[in-house]
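2024-03-11 09:14:02 DEBUG pipeline.ingest accepted 1 chain
2024-03-11 09:14:02 DEBUG pipeline.ingest length=257
2024-03-11 09:14:03 DEBUG pipeline.predict start
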Amino acid sequence: MDILTQKENGILTISFNRPEKKNAITAAMYQAMADALKDAETDHAVRVILITGKPEIFTAGNDLEDFMKNAASLASDTVPPVYQFMQALSLSGKPVIAAVSGAAVGIGTTLLMHCDLVYLADNAKLSMPFTQLGLCPEFASSMIFQQIVGYQRAAEKLMLGEAFSADEAFEMGFVNRVLPLTELLPYAQLQAAKLAALPAASIRVTKQLMKGNQPQAIATKMLEENQHFAGMLNAPEAKEAFMAFFQKRKPDFSKFN
């Protein structure tokens, strides 16, 4: 199973489990996570959600071969699995914790913006290399990230698309804490257990009050970004970027305006 789910003591743990492919995410994996989150929303036994990966890697982002096969669905009337997953994550009324070690590429970093608590191992490395692929930010990251870290810092990470360390993510205020790798998952599980022991209604209302009108703004920004993203997938820049990736060379964007 490429996605593992476990329910125990009020905690639903969702784990990336495709290490041979660096936990690259396929449409089937997005659907599995979307279904797990949707089920958790109405399951009274689930009080907290914990998302994690492997000690060596959180996720390399989208599986590009699978992504290109399913790219047409981004511009269709159907709701693709990735969109279902991110909507379910964004709208979750229950607290969501992320425990991240190793690389978190692309959507691996984007999804952290929709979690309530984020803990990183000291080997974590985050990146949003959308511009390097001839694309644009996704799933409201252009809005949420700058709200968290400020415009200039967000611009640097989103425009250049370069990776940044766990310590820098903490210094920017993007994550709650950086821990030694061996302490990451136990600490995240401890925090999840604390939340699970508190009154579910109190946690739910607290989260709702803190979010305010943000879910509506996020949904609007998601739609706007998705329209640009889908259009840019078919543009020459993205085709050059993906071809270069598969040919294991550096892309050449100099011929595009």
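2024-03-11 09:14:41 DEBUG pipeline.report The two ends are 44 Å apart (CA to CA).
2024-03-11 09:14:41 DEBUG pipeline.predict end
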